[in-house]
Specification:
Layout: H1 3-13, E1 15-19, E2 25-29, H2 35-44, H3 52-67, H4 73-87, H5 92-101, H6 106-114, H7 123-150
Antiparallel strand pairs: 1-2
């Protein structure tokens, strides 16, 4: 297991479900999560305030990276196009709900159009590519954060420290 995949595994396992007073459930980071995890999730929000749909996307992106066996930042960036395709909601209602929650997300659709990622101008295709672009950006952000965190993690599978001492304490 590489340090990158160790960081990925740790961040993914730090997500937990919680309930609000009204009984609705949401995802959050564990209260004992280290600062690097909070910073990674904050960066992946892409200037949005914390919200349920972004937390789900972040967790889904982490799960997709983990399921794909990604072990480095480069692999994550290479896989982002394919993985983001698998993350597009299958229900049109879910897709529309994603955009209705934060109107600023429609900018991702405009970006997809400007990059000529959409071959036909159907509303569903435009929305799907907008969502896909957002997912790719989350994966890229997470890959950067995981790479930064990987340098500071101790991996018991590959890291070891041998302490030897002679009778003089050296």
């Amino acid at each position: 297991m590489t340090r990158f995949s160790l960081a990925l595994s740790q961040l993914l396992s730090s997500f937990e479900r919680s309930s609000r007073d009204d009984g609705s459930e949401f995802l959050k980071l564990s209260s004992i999560s280290p600062d690097w995890m909070r910073h990674a999730v904050m960066a992946a929000h892409d200037e949005e305030l914390p919200n349920d749909s972004r937390y789900r996307l972040i967790r889904d992106c982490l799960q997709a990276l983990s399921d794909d066996g990604v072990e480095s930042q480069e692999e994550a960036l290479e896989a982002s196009l394919e993985l983001s395709l698998d993350l597009i909601p299958t229900s049109t209602g879910e897709l529309l709900q994603w955009f209705s929650q934060i109107p600023r997300r429609l900018g991702d659709c405009d970006e997809a159009l400007s990059q000529e990622r959409v071959s036909e101008l159907t509303t569903y295709e435009i929305l799907s590519e907008g969502f896909r672009l957002a997912a790719e950006e989350v994966i890229s952000s997470l890959a950067d954060s995981l790479e930064d965190a990987a340098d500071s993690l101790f991996n018991p599978d590959t890291d070891c420290e041998l302490l030897l001492s002679d009778s003089h304490g050296r």
